[in-house]
Specification:
273 residues, 9-stranded mixed beta sheet, alpha/beta, two-stranded antiparallel ribbon, binds S-adenosylmethionine, Rossmann fold, 10 helices
Length: 273
Amino acid sequence: MGHGKLKKFAENETFRCLLQPDASAVLDKEPGSRELRLKDHAIKGRWGSDMFGNDHPIVLELGCGKGDYTIALALRHPEMNYIGVDIKGARLWKGAKYATEQALPNVAFLRTRIEFIEAFFGPGEVSEIWLTFSDPQLHGSENSRLSSPLFLERYRKFLRPGGMVHLKTDSRYLYEYTSAVCRANKLQVIASGTDIYRDGIQSFSSLSTDEITEIQTFYEKMFLEMGLSITYLAFTIDHDGPYAFPGDAFDHDYWLEAEGPRRSFSHQPARKA
Ligand SMILES: C[S@@+](CC[C@H](N)C(=O)[O-])C[C@H]1O[C@@H](n2cnc3c(N)ncnc32)[C@H](O)[C@@H]1O
């Protein structure tokens, strides 16, 4: 590991706004078994009192990378609390350092695998979730997509009723997949757009969409420079579960073809769908 990374990891230990639990804080063994099971972290249900010192609504950015979006939203909305979640400590360092230096009271970061997210938040503790430029997992398991029924089931356990999920992505494949998940489960779509900087965003409620094009993440800026279209989808996940998979209602082959070779991050622009 490079010296720069080690330095960031050491500095990460000093940031009060950054929670970096060991896996053992959320995983233990079933009695009499070697199987690991998820257990609640001590902060679950206590973010307001223990981290922020208030009961303002909490918004998560899952896969926040360097935390640009988390910070930009937090600066605009001091009446809300924002938590950026990612597994990469060297990326989180940037956001956590900025939040610490600027003494931002409404920003926190959590270093964990998003697969463990329900160990950290109690019922109704979260008001909104942002998925920003998540890996579309074109060739991996559907269950590893952050908008798959499996992940929605996790979010449902802590998202308040009516709470929204926002997906902002350069991947038309992920946008179409997530739309198919919404249709399969009759989830209410609040706003959408397949090329938001060219055509804008269609809002089906009073949701104001201006700031969605005003704030850009690190990856978003990179994709825009590559000339890619950016999509946006907002929906609520009110549903008793279990969520249904879209199955054949999502045309995987068609959207994979439409996505083109770019998703390997080879910096080759995709063909437009
Ligand atoms: C393409 S980057 C986008 C980063 C940021 N949202 C942006 O737009 O600049 C995806 C991020 O998601 C994180 N990530 C992907 N899968 C994850 C998982 N299962 N758990 C935690 N973080 C994950 C990666 O570490 C990476 O920082």
